[in-house]
Amino acid sequence: xxxxxxxxxxxxxxxxxxxxxxxxxxxxxxxxxxxxxxxxxxxxxxxxxxxxxxxxxxxxxxxxxxxxxxxxxxxxxxxxxxxxxxxxxxxxxxxxxxxxxxxxxxxxxxxxxxxxxxxxxxxxxxxxxxxxxxxxxxxxxxxxxxxxxxxxxxxxxxxxxxxxxxxxxxxx
Length: 172
Hints:
Layout: H1 6-22, E1 29-31, H2 37-47, E2 51-53, E3 71-74, H3 85-96, H4 101-118, E4 130-133, H5 137-140, H6 144-150, H7 160-168
Parallel strand pairs: 1-2, 3-4
Helix pairs in contact: 3-4
């Protein structure tokens, strides 16, 4: 589970711990901040069925091939925080030049980050998996289409049954 903030990592991991306990799920839960990054990744690779919850440092440079990684869930589109003073200054400068700071800077940067996060899933020609993006703006906002078009072609669905069938099916 890739989150856009550390607060989201904490919230998601707390909720997952509750769910795993309630339903007696046996999956190891590995959470950014509880162990070092390399130790988390090593445990994730070796467990084969673990759930890893992390933020920015896990969006890129993570290479887990094969069955150890079959689902990547992204909580929100990775836009930079709007209260970032550097971002605000950059957008203000662009707008003074008559440019659209959102469309010409924020959106392209978010698309790059999203592609990096999604790229954790398919590392070679033998990998397969499910990418779940939980942000409704992908469908509800006009820029969502541009984001969809930037991603590699793959089957898309909002039907849980389709996802379950895919995960249960044997690779070709």
